[in-house]
Amino acid sequence: MQMTTALLIVNPCDDEEDNMAMLCCHSDQGDMFLMTRYPDEDALDITLDGEPSTLDGVKVTLSPTRLLIEIAAGDADALNGDDSLEITHSTDASDLAEVEETLQNILKGTGTYISEL
């Protein structure tokens, strides 16, 4: 599955939401992707077009223009039947450190983060 977005919206630790880490984006076609995790939970939540799924073992690769989310084949219903979601983004280079911090917070202890920055 593929999406294109202008911007990855992140919050590495939302004080108003019990320190939840959050990454969100809206595609050019109006689809929404949301990945969140509370620091005291063992799994993360992925929401695609309003359908939430709780997952662990997620692998995420971040590059300057691409975010690749890979999940287990058995969890493919979370991504409308696909086991990966490739998001092409135009996030400003100066904001990528915060995106990276957010992904590390979300995946810590429950997934794999790969940086191509």
**Total beta strand runs:** 10
What is the end-to-end distance?
A: 22 Å
Order of helices and strands: EEEEEEEEEHE
Strand content: over 45%
Low-confidence stretches: none
- What general outline do the C-alpha atoms trace? globular
Give the tally of structural domains: 1
The profile of the biggest β sheet is: 5 strands, mixed
Strand order of the largest sheet: 1-9-8-7-10
Q: Determine the fraction of residues in helical runs and give it as a percent range.
A: 10-25%
List the total number of helices.
1
Mean pLDDT, all residues:
95
Given helix and strand content, the structural type is: mainly beta
Q: What Rg is obtained from the alpha carbons, in whole angstroms?
A: 13 Å
Explained architecture:
There is one protein chain. The chain is mainly beta. It has one domain. 10% of the residues lie in helices and 46% in strands. The strands form 2 sheets. It has a 5-stranded mixed β-sheet, with helices on one face. It has a 5-stranded antiparallel β-sheet with strand order 2-3-4-5-6. A hairpin with a 6-residue loop joins strand 4 and strand 5. The mean pLDDT is 95.
